[in-house]
């Protein structure tokens, strides 16, 4: 337990496949994130945050959900516009603050800090800049407080189906 400033300087690093930090990111997510590790496909960025030699956080961004009725209505686009612009939306599928750390405001601080650099990092890797970031909060397990504190906007609830669902099952 400490205050955010007591952690020391937080260093945010982009993690690339094949480098040693990639294994650190994978292992941290596998061991400490309740959804575990699964390889991401397509365009993606992964970050590790450290304070000195201590791992603080692992976070990832990747392809957005293909179709979300509340998001699509909020944007105001139809099928054709969604097909043309979907690559400009990225999703935040994993966000882990190491479970032994208790520092008020740390999670929202990291979200804000990383999202401020995400456009430029994405541009450097993929040659374009995303314009929107989305995430999903598992109601009942989390309240989404860090996202609210980082000024994310709640636009609705999903139907609870995954991307591989073919049977209309939650």
In short:
With 170 residues, the protein is of the alpha+beta class.
Secondary-structure topology with pairs:
Blueprint: E1 10-15, H1 20-32, E2 44-51, E3 54-63, H2 69-75, H3 79-85, E4 89-97, H4 106-126, E5 132-134, H5 145-149
Parallel strand pairs: 4-5
Antiparallel strand pairs: 1-2, 2-3, 3-4
Describe the structure.
The N and C termini lie far apart (about 35 Å). The model has no long low-confidence stretch (mean pLDDT about 90). α4 (about 105-125) links the parallel β4 (about 90-95) and β5 (about 130-135). The chain is built from 5 helices and 5 strands; from the N terminus they run βαββααβαβα. It is globular and about 50 Å long. The protein has helices spanning about 20-30, 70-75, 80-85, 105-125, 145-150; strands at about 10-15, 45-50, 55-65, 90-95, 130-135. The chain has about 170 residues and is of the alpha+beta class.
